[in-house]
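2024-03-11 09:14:02 INFO receiving multi-entity request
2024-03-11 09:14:02 INFO entity count = two
2024-03-11 09:14:03 INFO echoing inputs for audit
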Amino acid sequence: MLVDTWHLFNKCMRITMRMPMWTLFTLIQPLIWLLIFGQLFKDFVQLGDDDYMAFMVPGILVMTVLFGSSWSGVSLLREITAGTIDKMLVSPVSRIAIVLSRVLHSSAQVIAQAFIMLFVAWLLGASLNMNPIYLMMAMLIVFLLGVGFAALSNGFAIALQREEPLVMIGNLMTLPLIFFSSALVPEQFMPDWIQLISAVNPISYAVDAIRAVLSTTPDMAVFGKGLLVLTLFAGASLTWAVTAFNALRD
Amino acid sequence: MTNLAIQIKGLTKIYPPDNRAVDTLDLEIKEGEIMALLGPNGAGKSTTIRAASTLCGFDEGSVMVAGFDVDTHSLEVRQAIGVVAQQTGIDYFLTGRENMMLQGHLYRMKKADINDRIAELASYFELNDSIDNLVSTYSGGMRRKLDIACALIHRPKVLFLDEPTLGLDIKNRKILWKHIDKLNKEFGLTILLTTHYLEEADNLSHQVAIINNGKVQVVDTPDALKNSIHGDSITVTFDDVGKNEQAFFHVAQQQPYIKGTTWEDNKLHLYVEDGGANVAALIAVAADNGAKIINLSLSRPTLDDVFLKYTGSSISEVKEDEGDEWWKQWAGKGGNTGKWKNQWGANDSDAEEGSESEDQAWKNSHWAKNGDNGENLGTQKRDVAQSQPGAWSAKQQQRPDSNNTTSEQGSQKWDQSQQGDWQNNEWNKNKDGGEK
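2024-03-11 09:21:47 INFO inference complete, emitting structure
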């Protein structure tokens, strides 16, 4: 299974490398947020010692992950239409590997995007903790979140069976989830009901965990909690996606 | 029961609620044989292939492929078969070599072995010059060849070809036939192919199975099938089928030299003993009854006549069956229980109302029992091939074009969606709009 996954993952990566522009395109929106909102809110947001840029960057990273990984299902539908998936299914290849390779590919892509975003943030002068170990920990969260949402996207693709509603759900899912989390606004500024949603929103945990390790004063407890929640989230979505994929055939 | 490569017994596949795509179908294919499944779209050819190649489950029956039960030993079956589906499952953004390499990996072959095989197959299919180019630069014929080469990489014993020459021009089709024939002769590969080109079944296969309404109507060699139609075939085309023509039909049926008749819209096929000698007498009968004949042709029976005899419709009339159906076909049982079923239902009935031609209505009323070829599947009759007076070959000139529209749509969609998903959405909207 792992070998199968590796070969399929390789194939996906190779295709992506042939058109790197696409990876960059999905970065445009988070970049706009980073540049415009970062500048816009910088002066009237009061966050004590931290600057808003440093506060916002983890939120934008998570946003990048969401925008990047929720497309994964669209390409699954495309490959089904093109017959590529059929070609895999008539071979003895592991069925889990088919879903897993897609999800991993999406996460790898998202990690690359996250690094670019961090670089831009660094250029803009955000005061972040750039210690490689902490960076890797942040990327672990990015990876898990990517796995979770790419799997969700694949699962929805199978449940909805069409591209249009899938894209709609993808859009519907990403923006509110970001606003209902601590990505852009600290929790204490939220109305109570949004705090409530935020508390069950995996994105909040991801943002908090990334923020905890990228902060100049890392907080391991928050990171640990986020890591746990996201591992569960990624595992659950992945299980759902694989089950849905297998249930398609009788 | 030795030497059976494929043995299908009582295969039944029901798409909910009650569409029997394949209905207690029996089929046996000997090792080293080429069998062609011939039938209109929606007859159950593809479903049969999908069931036999472990791509979809089925409701009843048993399927043995290469000595293994597809239900209980699907892994062994998968190892023993190669499948070329209707859509080319190759990746356009990889080179030919990379596609074959991946395919080899999927079958868990050793790298050196894969390389040997790629070299072998590339020269066999004359792809040596372009094997390292991106598939998106390939022509349709080359893609097809690469597709077959991919399916052969692991040295399967049985090869399934679902409409292998769909959308190819005549030259490329002939080249592909040559390859398929050679594969069978040189390597003893058992091949099960579906087609709706009669010529293809005639040229290529040892056995032809005519399938209609999910059942095998007849299995035999192409020659035996043609001989089963006694005498020559006379096709009479009328301007309009009225009282006189019906009268002529009734009198003609009484003639001792007429062995059989079949209607096809405003054409009447008569199977006549010693056609050359009796054609004059037949014309006299027509004149007596005042039937207006606008065209009359005399020929040896072809597979088209055989097809007509067993399915009640000429294969050239069969409608294309594409569009939204893909998911249902792909997802097996799952497709029809999905949330979008209702939406599909709506689209289907729209499409059917829109394109019901008068011809079709006439035919349905006269041939009620045969009139359900494909129609009860709720297909979109985007592509009703006009029935033409004249020989089969004339229609063949036409068919590749009409088929191209569907395959090109597929690739258009592919290309566009790679450019960006916003475009893809836009395109889908247009497409949906156009269909309604």
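2024-03-11 09:21:48 INFO post-check: The interface with chain B takes residues 3-4, 7-8, 11, 14-15, 18-19, 22, 25, 71, 74, 78, 80-93, 159-165, 167, 247-250 of chain A (CB under 8 Å).
2024-03-11 09:21:48 INFO post-check: The two ends of chain A are 21 Å apart (CA to CA).
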